[in-house]
Specification:
This protein starts with a helix and ends with a helix. It is 64% helix and 0% strand.
Length: 188
């Protein structure tokens, strides 16, 4: 009899926890800081996930709710989460939606420096590129790749300059073959 009572109690707690986690996800999506704080204090899981792997931090960040993002980061929420449907990082969604204040918070927290650099270079935001270079220390390969891409984009002159100052190497010169040598192979 005691086992049945414990089982019923455990099931009720599990159902309550699921409801509380769903409430936390919804509060974060809406940007309701008071509700987020209350639900976290009552024991909701800070890393609760939607069916697509989005956490409260992910939902608040992609919707530009800076106060909720800061609170969740301060509580230790993981800033390196990917959406399982789009396979997009939190930073990519934030930049796509032009929530640059949130992007700065995520970059300041750290994470995958190479991925962050690629995302901010694509956004065209020179101040964010500078922040990633200074804060996250991307690999030489990532710097060089971003620099080569920025050189090909006429709009990214300031970004290319930042990447060069950050340690990017000049891309290898394009291979040039003398036209006479090429002509000598004609017909063979």
């Amino acid at each position: 009899m005691h086992r049945i009572a414990w089982l019923v109690l455990a099931m009720a707690l599990a159902l309550f926890a699921g409801d509380a986690n769903d409430e936390l996800l919804e509060a974060a999506r809406r940007g309701d800081l008071a509700a987020v704080k209350s639900l976290i204090e009552k024991g909701s899981a800070i890393e609760a996930k939607t069916s697509y792997g989005q956490t409260p931090l992910y939902l608040a960040a992609r919707n530009g709710h800076e106060a909720v993002v800061q609170y969740l980061l301060d509580k230790g929420a993981n800033g390196d989460v990917r959406d399982t449907f789009y396979k997009a990082s939190m930073l990519e969604f934030v930049l796509e939606r032009k929530h640059y204040g949130v992007a700065k918070m995520l970059i300041a927290r750290g994470g995958n420096a190479d991925e962050q650099l690629r995302a901010v270079v694509e956004s065209g935001q020179a101040d964010l590129v500078q922040m990633v270079i200074e804060k996250s220390k991307p690999s030489q390969k990532a710097l060089d790749s971003a620099y080569e891409g920025a050189l090909g984009d006429k709009q990214a002159g300031a970004i290319a300059e930042l990447l060069k100052k950050g340690g990017a190497h000049e891309p290898a010169a394009a291979l040039q073959v003398d036209a006479k040598v090429l002509d000598s192979y004609a017909g063979t």
